[in-house]
Amino acid sequence: MSGTASRGFERWWRTEGEWVEEANQRRGGESGVQRLPGERRSLYCKRQSGHVHRSLCHPLGRPTVLREAESIRAFRALGLGVPELVYCGARKQGDTWQALLVTEELPGFVALDRWYATQAESVSPAARGLLLDRLGQSLALMHAAGWQHGCLYAKHVFVRVEEGSYGPTVEVALIDLEKCRRRWRRKFAARHDMAQFSRHRGGMPPADWERLLAAHSAALAALGLC
């Protein structure tokens, strides 16, 4: 790490905020998330110590936030909604990795499980249907590109639904991408994620789940992955 990069890392490392996800022990280290003040909007800082994943390419371990930053950039290139990446860096302190991932908040968005708990009943059937179709299409685009989210829970899917005089508008974004990986067999990526999502879809009722599955399948077929 160069002197400039080291100073940048140290500045972010020393910046403290409110814990929104208390640091917990995982993967042989600690990982947690803090909310920080930003110039335009709040920032979220994932702070890790000794929190690594191991693979054939990285048998000694590599901070998971580096993989997450790569996934954010790849998803954005595909046109998928993801948080804006502000900073990502890692350094070795002795034998322990320290790593940071800083992203902007998603203004006006809410986690899908919370949306079902607080907003779903107040929107029109057209808005609800558009949301399910858009989510299914977004997941299909991810899977057709060979990506597996790996932790597809309703709390990691963020949505923004607005009713307007010209009809509803819907946006979908995916977060917590540290377990994302490419799979050669794209059908396996889709099968894994959708089975996981089915188990962790929060308050989504069966009829909504069936519509999402239909939108996902139709989009996969249109993208050449039947």
Description:
With 226 residues, the protein is α+β, with helices and mostly antiparallel strands. It is 38% helix and 28% strand. The chain has helices at 3-14, 64-78, 112-118, 125-144, 186-199, 206-222, and strands spanning 18-26, 29-36, 43-49, 52-53, 62-63, 85-93, 96-104, 110-111, 147-148, 157-162, 169-174, 181-182. A hairpin with a 2-residue loop joins strand 6 (85-93) and strand 7 (96-104). The chain is globular. The N and C termini lie far apart (45 Å). The relative contact order is 0.14. The model has no long low-confidence stretch (mean pLDDT 92).
Q: Which strand order do you get reading across the main beta sheet?
A: 1-2-3-7-6
Instruction: Note the beta-strand portion.
Output: 25-35%
Would you identify the regions where 5 or more consecutive residues have pLDDT less than 50?
Answer: none
Q: What's the β-strand tally?
A: 12
Helices and strands, in order, run as HEEEEEHEEEHHEEEEHH
Tell me the Rg in angstroms.
Answer: 19 Å
Largest sheet report: 5 strands, antiparallel
Question: Number of helix segments?
Answer: 6
The pLDDT mean sits at: 92
**Separation of the first and last Cα atoms:** 45 Å
Morphology = globular
Helical residue percent? 25-40%
Structural class: alpha+beta
